[in-house]
Amino acid sequence: MKIFLLGLLFSLSLAGCETMENMNREKKLDFDLNLYRHEVRWGQIEALPAYLKPDMIEAQPPVAQDPNNVRVTEYEVLIVPHFLGQDRNRASQTVRIDYIFRDRQVVHSLVDEQHWEYDAQAKKWYRSNLIPVFE
């Protein structure tokens, strides 16, 4: 009976650890997506490749010909962040980004389908698809 109870307690503690890890991963996703949104909306868009998986950075074309000429006017989440798969190491969200070129004052819009992967060692979410170009 004692072995059964110890086994049960051990199983419950593992399940509790897994639940806590999933909660932390979800909070970290929200935090990283908000950081990314802030960078797009108010930061420097040329810094966005830093959110990519490290092995993808070189494949990313410049996000704009002249990043200083781009001003983002709206960042709207169209499809809320959601996990893909049972392991909860991949997530996706879709946003619409409205922006202008300062020298032309014409509103442009792009739909950005973002894919994210969790790096358990770094405890960080990385974007796993290329960032669209503001053109």
Describe what you observe in this structure:
This protein is α+β, with helices and mostly antiparallel strands and 135 residues long. The protein has one domain (2-127): Roll (Nuclear Transport Factor 2, Chain: A). It has one helix spanning 2-42, and strands spanning 70-84, 90-101, 107-119, 124-127. A four-stranded antiparallel beta sheet has the order 1-2-3-4. It is elongated and about 75 Å long.
Characteristic terms for this protein:
1 helix; about 30% helix; elongated; alpha+beta; about 140 residues; Nuclear Transport Factor 2, Chain: A
Protein topology:
Layout: H1 2-42, E1 70-84, E2 90-101, E3 107-119, E4 124-127
Antiparallel strand pairs: 1-2, 2-3, 3-4
Strand order of the largest sheet: 1-2-3-4
How many strand segments? Answer: 4
Rg to the nearest angstrom?
19 Å
CATH topology label? Nuclear Transport Factor 2, Chain: A
Report the average pLDDT across residues.
89
- Helix percent reads 25-40%
- Which sequence of SSEs, written as H and E, runs from N to C? HEEEE
In short:
With 135 residues, this protein is α+β, with helices and mostly antiparallel strands. It has one domain: Nuclear Transport Factor 2, Chain: A, CATH 3.10.450. The protein is built from one helix and four strands; from the N terminus they run H-E-E-E-E.
